[in-house]
Specification:
By secondary structure, the chain is mainly alpha-helical. It has one domain. 78% of the residues lie in helices and 0% in strands. It contains six helices and no strands. Helix 3 runs antiparallel to helix 5. The longest helix is centred in the middle third of the chain and has 24 residues. It starts with a helix and ends with a helix.
C-alpha cells in the first residue's frame, strides 16, 4: 500500500465519507477501523492526511468526555467512541513517530 497513486485516490474518498458522518453516529466505527488499518499500513506516508484524521479523532474523544460528564450512563453507553478514537490516535502516533509532534502544535 505504498503506491502514491493509490493513496492519492483512496484517502480523499475516505476523507469525504469521514467528513460526511455525524460525530455521534456509530457509522463512524468502521471508518475508524479503516483509517487505523491504513495508518498502520502507510506509516509515515500518512503524513499529508494526518492532521484532519487527528483533529476528528480528538473531537470525537472530547465529545465523548463531555457527554460522559453530563450523563454518567454515557460513560458506558458510548465507550466505543472513546475506544475507537484512542486506537486511531495511537496508530497515528506510532506511524508518525517523532513527526507526530507537529499534530499537537
Amino acid at each position: 500500500m505504498k503506491d502514491q497513486r493509490i493513496i492519492a485516490e483512496i484517502l480523499p474518498l475516505l476523507n469525504k465519507k469521514w467528513i460526511s458522518i455525524d460525530d455521534n453516529s456509530s457509522t463512524l466505527f468502521p471508518l475508524f477501523e479503516t483509517f487505523e488499518s491504513l495508518v498502520q499500513s502507510l506509516g509515515s506516508n500518512i503524513t499529508p492526511y494526518a492532521q484532519p484524521i487527528f483533529q476528528r479523532a480528538c473531537k470525537v474523544l472530547a465529545d465523548y468526555v463531555s457527554a460522559a460528564k453530563a450523563n454518567e450512563d454515557d460513560l458506558y453507553n458510548k465507550s466505543n467512541f472513546m475506544v475507537r478514537s484512542l486506537d486511531l490516535l495511537s496508530a497515528l502516533f506510532n506511524a508518525l513517530g517523532t513527526s507526530s509532534q507537529a499534530l499537537l502544535v
